[in-house]
Amino acid sequence: MTLRDHQRRPRGGRWLPRLAWFSLLVLLLAALLLAGAGPAYRLELLPLGSAFDMLRRGVYLSAGAATLGLLALIAATFCRRLQPALIGGVVVVATAAMLAVPWLHWQRAQHAPPIHDITTDTENPPAFETLAAAREAAPNAVEYPGEAVARQQHEAYPDIQPVILDLPLGFARDVAEAAALDMGWEIAHNSLTQIEATDTTTWFGFKDDVVIRLSETDDGTRIDVRSASRLGRGDVGANAARIRDYFAAVERRLD
């Protein structure tokens, strides 16, 4: 080997760009697993347990890709190799962005109680009628779970309360229906005093049911809402958030 050959060989040798490209390949595989888990379950290609395993493997692969990318970035920076450094940096940043949603979901799960049925009236919750058959075919019960769940709800979500509209019942029902449609829900039942609808989540296609009860009061019309998941012990706060979003949609309709 001549001195000229030694000088032409880039610092870090061939393994450095290979490491960077390999980290990118691992990241792409992880992205496929994470992105494909929900559609695979929704299209009935995988059972729920297998889809969650797919998600878990995607998270593990993402962590591996980030580790490899960071090693490539550090080594390439030390060796003054621009391309491997850029690839490693992209892998690290992309992994952080890709894992942000699962991480936030996990954070919410740490603070949310293990309940899946939320209502503005825990003493006399609105009852599912039209959607009762669909809920009976699902793992979670049709009937409201009871005092233990109500106590956990009040502790975790004290803001979930009924709304009083200064409107007669008929006008309030029109507002309530319009807000439900604004939410993108599929209306299953619509009468003067009750609306039942289903909200389907985008990624996994989970179906959560909503019942809206309207009752006349001295101050106008009271709206009570109950949102319940068909599947899963805990909802990570999704049903409480849905009720908040619905009441926000009602307010927008009143503006």
From TrEMBL:
Where are its TM segments located?
Answer: 58-78, 85-106
> Would you say which domain of life the source belongs to?
Bacteria
Give the keywords, sorted.
Membrane, Transmembrane, Transmembrane helix
Protein name per its UniProtKB record = DUF1499 domain-containing protein
Q: What is the lineage of its organism?
A: Bacteria, Pseudomonadati, Pseudomonadota, Gammaproteobacteria, Oceanospirillales
